[in-house]
Amino acid sequence: MYKLNCIIIEDEPLAVKILTDYISQVPFLALRGSFKDAILATEYLHEHSPDLIFLDIHLPKLKGMEFLKTLNHPPAVIITTAYHQYAVEGFDLNVCDYLLKPFEFERFLKAVNKANASQKEKIIEKQEQKDFIFVNVQKKKVKVLFADILYIESQREYIKIVTEKNTLISKMSTHEIEALLPAPLFKRIHRSFIVSLNKIDSFTSELVELNGISIPIGRGYREVIERFFV
Questions:
Q1: Entry pTM
Q2: Rounded CA separation 115/99 (Å)
Q3: Which of residues 110 and 47 earns the better pLDDT score?
Q4: Which CATH number does the domain housing residue 16 bear?
Q5: Is residue 35 domain-shared with residue 149, that is, in the same domain?
Q6: Which of 13, 69, 110, 193 has the most CB atoms at less than 10 Å from its CB?
């Protein structure tokens, strides 16, 4: 599962404890550090690029909003504060969400789900801009061109990527590889199969053929093919 790497910038120990506990309960979040002021966080950001920052507004040395204005390419930011009057300014700076202390876990989860959805959209945009991905094959990262992929098959904890040149086995799920593929070019047509739409030579209501290979269409996926080709 893809994880959002996050950091906390907060000077109240109790608030840090609560955020740390909440983060530990969300499978797609990975806490990489917490900082009691923005100056220390700035030093961290010189060498690291987290996906998400939990940012308090009233910080020593440099206030949260002023710190945010210093970032040229800020990651997703969730403001955490006891002062509601800064909400408008926060949204003007494109923060992902604004959590008013004290906040319950349900409200926290809503905010991080929004950040996660935004990050997935960015990943998809990046994948659509380039024409390849790298996948782990044994102990190497192997470049795979989207244009070469015929189909991808689930094999329990692994996937088989069949291309026009070779076949690769990588330890990941079809859901993980599906998130990395450009949606306009690839579609899941079966619980175990993702196919390249451009490679389909023919199809029926039960299977597609590409490069002489027949791939079954799952019952719940028949509309996928019809939507694109009928």
A1: 0.57
A2: 13
A3: 110
A4: 3.40.50.2300
A5: no
A6: 193
